[in-house]
Amino acid sequence: MDDLALIALPELGRDPNRTYRLGIMGGTFDPIHYGHLVTAEQAREALALDLVLFMPAGSPAFKLDKRVTRAEDRYAMTVLATAANDAFYASRFEIDRPGVTYTVDTLRMLRAHYPSNVELYFITGADAILDIVSWHDAAEIAELATLIAASRPGYDITQARSRIAAAGLPFDVRYIEIPALAISSTNIRQRVACGKSVRYLTSESVLGFIRKNGLYREELAHMQEGEEGDCGTA
Description:
Enzyme class: transferase
Catalytic activity: nicotinate beta-D-ribonucleotide + ATP + H(+) = deamido-NAD(+) + diphosphate
Structural class: alpha/beta
Mean pLDDT: 88
Organism: Enorma phocaeensis
CATH superfamily: HUPs
Domain Cytidyltransferase-like: 24-191
CATH topology: Rossmann fold
Radius of gyration: 18 Å
Keywords: ATP-binding, NAD, Nucleotide-binding, Nucleotidyltransferase, Pyridine nucleotide biosynthesis, Transferase
Number of domains: 1
Largest sheet: 6 strands, parallel
Strand order of the largest sheet: 3-2-1-4-5-6
CATH class: Alpha Beta
Oligomer: single chain
Order of helices and strands: HEHEHEHEHHEHEHH
CATH architecture: 3-Layer(aba) Sandwich
């Protein structure tokens, strides 16, 4: 176990006579935006989570072939975005660990670090549930954490439920609806590169960090083939 990574975790579970609920909000956060924050807050309220850990990925397994902003900048933006909420905690846990980041590795170390009266809740999008059965060591993920699948109002979760049932794995999935916020980190990066406003898509503190550090100015040159490549007028 990486002791240096564990230093970045908050204390939880001190009272042995009560159960604690720890939410884990993983992501690239490149950059973090209001969609992430609203999802975490809605999950916290709906499932009575004591704390939500925001964990910027170090080397995300699903983005090894893509350009990602350096971890220190993504972590700094996460700290800025979550600072005003006492129930949110930005952790260096994943960015300080060497190698590729897998969800199961994070859950294993959290389970080993916290006492048994701390329950783990992994927050993800309902669309990700369609793929989670094929994630690295999916069966162990099912054993280690309850899944919180967030979706926009009106999203059809039938396919997700069917995929989970067909997998035959002991997933415990809680489905919650969140306000219909169609915000993406990709769109924010592209708008910054085009010189367009991203105000009200992310916090002023994150926006200030992006401007100060000149992030995403070269985004258009690094778009994947098939993505929108011009700035347009929208």
